[in-house]
Amino acid sequence: MIKNIIFDLGGVLLNIDFQKTMDAFKKLGADNINEIFSGYSQYYFFDAFEKGLISPKEFRNEIRKFLKQNSTDEMIDEAWNAMLLDFPTERINFLLSCKNKYRTFLLSNTNAMHFPVYNKQLKEKFHINDLSDLFEKAYYSYRLGLRKPEKEIFEIVLKENNLNPEETLFIDDSPINIATADKLGIKTILLEYPKTLMNVVLDM
To answer: Is the peptide bond prior to 194 cis by the omega test (within 30 degrees of 0)?
Structure first.
């Protein structure tokens, strides 16, 4: 019996396209951006930024090391945020309907540069101030100093809200994040292309 749902953000609620960010950085002179992104975990500053361990200024300075031309903060921000696409209306409506049936939570690996961008879109398109209005509580990696798939970030959500893992569903598009949740006894759904959140609606 599912009583609680924990949602991922990117790839589940928010459409994202990493290729757009890679293409944008190539235009700024980062010819080896494919190597950088394919070795995402090898570059500490990506992980550190999502954990809030470095500032946007420090993150930009790390990115600049891979650029051949002088790029302003605005140019780097625009390239980094290019991956953020849109919130489909049906997904927002689904979240609103879920609040009447389940305790709902957000658990997102995100950063201080992305946060205001997708919340601005949410406000302009749906007149919703920010993501926290759609959930009982929203958890962001850069504010917690932890990120998925670390088990500690899942344990925080469970403990703070007194959630029984067996009554909790976690929806994410990353197999490694799903694997951690499975180990903690949380029910899971892996959203792999072309499956979307709306397919889950039919199953619930």
So the answer is: yes
Q: Which of 36, 66, 81 is the last residue of a domain?
A: 81
| Residue 99 and residue 75 in one domain | no
Rounded Cα gap, residues 126 and 202, in angstroms: 24
Task: Specify the pTM.
Answer: 0.94
**How far is residue 73's CA from residue 70's CA, in Å, rounded to a whole number?**
10
Omega of the bond leading into 56 within 30 degrees of 0 (cis): no
Is residue 196 within 8 Å of 94, Cβ to Cβ? no
Q: Is 198 helix (H, G, I), strand (E, B) or coil?
A: helix
pLDDT in tens, 165-184: 999 999 999 999 999 999 99
- Both 75 and 100 in a single domain? no
Q: Which residues are catalytic?
A: 8
Same domain, 113 and 179: yes
Domain count, the chain: 2
Buried b (16+ CB within 10 A) or exposed e, 78-96: ebbbbbbeebeeebbebbe
What pLDDT shows up at residue 24? 94
DSSP 54: S
| Final residue in a domain of this structure, among 63, 81, 99 | 81
Question: Whose structure tokens read 């946007």?
Answer: 56
Q: How many secondary structure helices (H) and strands (E) does the chain include?
A: 11, 5
Sign of the Cα torsion 11, 58, 66, 148 reads negative
Give tens-digit pLDDT for 101-114.
999 999 999 999 99
